[in-house]
Amino acid sequence: MTGGDPTPEEFSANASALVEGGADIVEIGIPFSDPIADGPVIQASSQRALGAGITPKKILSLTGEFSDQHDLPIILLTYCNPILAMGAERFFQMASKSGVSGVVVPDVPANADPQFHGLASKYSIDSILLAALNTPETRLRQILAETTGFLYLVSLYGVTGPRKTLSPQALESLKRVISINKNRTPVSAGFGVSTPDHVRTLIRAGADGAIVGSALAQKVQDHLGDPGETEQVLKKHVAELKQATRKF
Amino acid sequence: MKIKKAPIQPRGRFGKYGGQYVPETLMKPLQDLEEAYDEYSRDPSFKKELRNLLESYAGRPTPLYLARNLTRNLGGAKIYLKREDLLHGGAHKINNTLGQVLLARRMGKKRIIAETGAGQHGVATAMACAALGLQSEIYMGREDMERQKLNVYRMKMLGAEVHPVDSGSRTLKDAINESLRDWVTNVENTYYLLGSAVGPHPYPTMVRDFQSIIGREARQQILAREDKLPSAIIACVGGGSNSIGIFHHFLHDLEVELYGVEAGGQDIRPGQHAAALVAGSEGVLHGMLTYLLQDTNGQVQNTRSISAGLDYPAVGPEHAYLKNTGRVKYSAVSDDDALDAFKRLSNQEGIMPALEPAHALSYAFRLAKKYPTKDSILVNLSGRGDKDVEIAARHFIQ
C-alpha cells in the first residue's frame, strides 16, 4: 500500500486491515512524483498521498508505529530519488529503526548502485532485487545469488496495475527461475497479480509468495470518503487472496 | 555462505553521473541497444548510409553565418551562427533521429516510440520514420500540444500517431515517463528513440555522438573563415543535445570558453524556471544520476519556461559532469530576455530563431561586448522559430 494514501490516518487503518485479512508481509510504498514502473492506479494513489502532504519521514514514522502494533515483516518500496534526497545511509538507518525488514527499489536494478546493497546489509535490511521476464540467465543467476529476503519476479512486460488474467509468460518465467534456483531463494511474483485465481495459479506453479498492490490501491480509490467500508473491503479481499495460497 | 561475485563495473558514467537507473525489464533492451550501437557505429556501410542521408535528406553541412548587423550593433566579437535551423524539419533533432532510426532498422525493430517537448524531436522522428519505412508513435504532454499546435499537425501529416500525456505536469518530463512505460510494455518489438542526451546509458553517449557533427563541422568552418578558434561557444541547454553536439569537438580546446544557457523562466524561484544546472541538486530521474530540480523530499518539481523544448527539470549527465569540472559554464536566461533576442535576430538579420536558441542568443549578446572585435564567438542556432510565432506574436503584436 502507498504510505499515506488517501490520508495518513486512513492508511494506518487500511494497513491494519491487511494484517487482519491475513497478509504475511506488508509492503509500504513511499510515493515518488515520477514512478516509471507504475501504472495509472499506483500513480493516482501516489498523487493522493503526496497531495495529502505525506513525506518519506512521515511514512517512516507511520511504519514505526505499525511495526510496534503488528508482528510481521514490513517492506518499503520506493524509487531511487527519495532515498538519495534523504541521504542513503540515513534512509537505511531510519528504516531499520522503524522495524523495516526489506527494501525494494524498482529503478535500481542489480549492480546499478552497489552502495544501496552495502548499506542495506550494514543495517540488517534485506535488499530485495527484481528479476524480469527477459533477464538473461547469467544475470538471473547473479540476481538470485545477490538478492536477500526473496526474489521479486516481475511477471509481465509492463507497469504495475490490475489485470484480468495473468500474463502468458508469468508461469513460464516462474518455471525458469525455479529450475536454476539452487539455493532455494524464496520467489514472489508481482505486477498484474490481482485476484485469488492469479494467486492460486502462481502458488501451485511453485511461487513462494504473490505480491498484490494495485488491486488494493484500486479498492482504496473506489471507496474514497468511506474509511470504514474501505477497511472492510480490503480485509475481505486479502482474506480471499490468503485463502488462495493454501495448496489443499 | 553467500556467494560473492565481483560487481559488474557501472557503465556509461560521466564522472559519477549517468548510469542505468531503470526497471529490470529495460536492462536487456539497453544492453542490446549498446551492443548494436557499438557494432554499427564502427560499421563503414552504416556510417556511409547515415552520411548520405544527412547530406541529401537533412541538408548537411549547415552554413556558418556571420551576423554582421548584430556584430556591428553590439560592438564586440564577431557573432557567428551555426545554422542548424536550416536543417530539414527546422532543428538539429534530425541529426539524431536519422542515426537512431537507421540503427532501429538494423536491429529489426518495427515500431518506434519517442517523446517530444516542443515537438521538434517528434517531427524529426516522424520524418526519419517515414523516409525509412517505420511506424512512429509520439508521446507529448497535453500542455505542450496546446502551445506547439503546429508541430502536432506536422507530426500527424508525416504519418505519426500522437499520444497526449495527461500525467504529472503534462510536459516533456511526463512524455518521457510515458515513453518508458510504453517501452517496458512493448520491449520486444519497440525501439525507444530518445531525443536528447538524457536517459539511461547508452542514450546520453549515443545522442551526443550523433549530434557531435554540429561541432565537427563548425570547427572546420570557423578555422577556414577566421584561421583561429572562436573565443566562446554558446548553446542552450534543456536536456542538452544541441549543446553537447556543438561542444564535443571543442572540449579539449581549453582556450575556447563554453557556455550552456538554461531556461530562467519567470524568475529563479522553485517552479518558475527550468534551470537544473544553475539551481538544481543531484538526483535520479529518467534512468540517470544528474542535476535535478527537486524538493527536499526528492519529489521532482514543476518547471516553467516559455520554450517547451527547455521545459525539463533534469539535464543530460555529461553536462552535470562538465559543470563540476568547470569546463562549461552554465547560466540561465529569462523568458523576457529570450523573447527580446527572438525579436532582435528577426529584425536585424532576418532570421527567426526558435525560442530555445533565443536563450543562447540573449546570453551571447551580453558576452560579445566583452571580447575585442578581432575575436569571434559562435552560437548554435539549433532551430527555427516558425513554431513559436504564435507565442511571440502574443507578446509583440497587440
Would you kindly provide a written description of the structure presented here, covering whatever features stand out?
The complex is a heterodimer of chains A (248) and B (398). With 248 residues, chain A is an alpha/beta fold. Chain A has a single domain, classed as Aldolase class I (TIM Barrel, Alpha-Beta Barrel). Chain A has eleven helices and eight strands. Chain A has helices at 8-21, 40-51, 56-69, 80-86, 88-97, 114-122, 137-146, 169-180, 196-204, 214-222, 227-245, and strands at residues 26-30, 74-78, 102-104, 126-127, 130-131, 151-154, 187-190, 209-210. In chain A, strand 5, helix 7 (137-146) and strand 6 form a beta-alpha-beta unit. In chain A, helix 2 (40-51) crosses helix 10 (214-222) and helix 4 (80-86) crosses helix 5 (88-97). The longest helix of chain A has 19 residues, at 227-245. In chain B, helix 5 packs parallel to helix 7. Chain B is globular, with a radius of gyration of 20 Å. Classes of the chains: A alpha/beta (248), B alpha/beta (398).
- Amount of helix of chain A: 40-55%
Radius of gyration of chain B: 20 Å
The largest β sheet of chain A comes out as: 4 strands, parallel
Shape of chain B: globular
Question: Structural class, from helix and strand content of chain A?
Answer: alpha/beta
Low-confidence stretches of chain A: none
Average pLDDT figure of chain A: 96
> Topology as H/E string of chain A?
HEHHEHHEHEEHEHEHEHH
Task: Determine the CATH superfamily of chain A.
Answer: Aldolase class I
Highest CATH level, the class of chain A: Alpha Beta
Q: Unreliable runs of chain B, pLDDT <50, ≥5 residues?
A: 1-9
